[in-house]
């Protein structure tokens, strides 16, 4: 690709998703783009401040990871370890994911647990930024020092997550958070990566949205660890519960395998949240038996490696506007264009 030639990816500028706002004081928030670096001593100070609950410090560290700055490897070495419970939340748009996350935060905070949230938002194809809808719905916890909420732009990554979500989870674990919640984009049937990232994956459904049929199509019988029928005060909730239980009855399970419970909630009123947290706890206890939890963490690491490789390939092999125009006008075909991007003319 010729130097200076414009690519379609240039329209989606780096830096989307950094929407953290913190009270005055503490470590200054890093607002620079790629190339941001921190000296070793400054990095250690920032990590120490983040462990004490400094939101600006936590924001700065996450920015280092998201932008893959030169300080990222050193940061990863400073925040090793952590035993946070990682909970993934997925489901179609409109089922109340962010509202349920807010209710879960409140319940876990009542238990004295420190909660981190990574809310993955779709990127604008033009600006590269992420919308703030998730953060708006969680505004009740904005001033709680035991809660940290971060919106992350997908930056074109598929599967409902961002390429750096796994690194963000590791960071929050290493900073001492007890629970890390990952809320996916909410695009529907393609959101399967969350199952490899989270210890426990919740699938949210709502009455009257045809979600039972969508669940069959997406194969989420295998993906979800806990089903949640939200907005259970609406007509049709009992029917959705019956549909889910009927689907699960068709799945053969060996003795000792996990059987997904079906929980009902009204997240806007925090109804059913305690029962849901109990179900999440039971699944975590089941994972802790034998080598299941360690195996899940290995799968998470493998998924994180694959995501970073995919992101690097997208960055390395870019599609120019001229090449896209050539395919659109019929001058060349898609396969030939792809080979030219990869440098393969054979």
Explain how this protein is built.
Belongs to the SIMIBI class G3E GTPase family. ArgK/MeaB subfamily. α1 (40-51) crosses α2 (55-66). A seven-stranded parallel beta sheet has the order 3-2-4-1-5-6-7, sandwiched between helices. The protein starts with 39 loop residues before the first helix and ends with a helix. It has one domain (10-308): P-loop containing nucleotide triphosphate hydrolases (Rossmann fold), CATH 3.40.50. The longest helix has 25 residues, at 292-316. It has helices at residues 40-51, 55-66, 72-78, 97-110, 133-137, 165-174, 194-197, 211-218, 220-223, 237-249, 273-288, 292-316, 321-328, 334-342, and strands spanning 85-91, 115-121, 147-153, 179-183, 200-205, 226-229, 262-264. The chain has 14 helices and seven strands. It is α/β, with parallel strands linked by helices and 346 residues long. α5 links the parallel β2 (115-121) and β3. Mean pLDDT is 79; it is low at 11-36, 123-134 and 156-161.
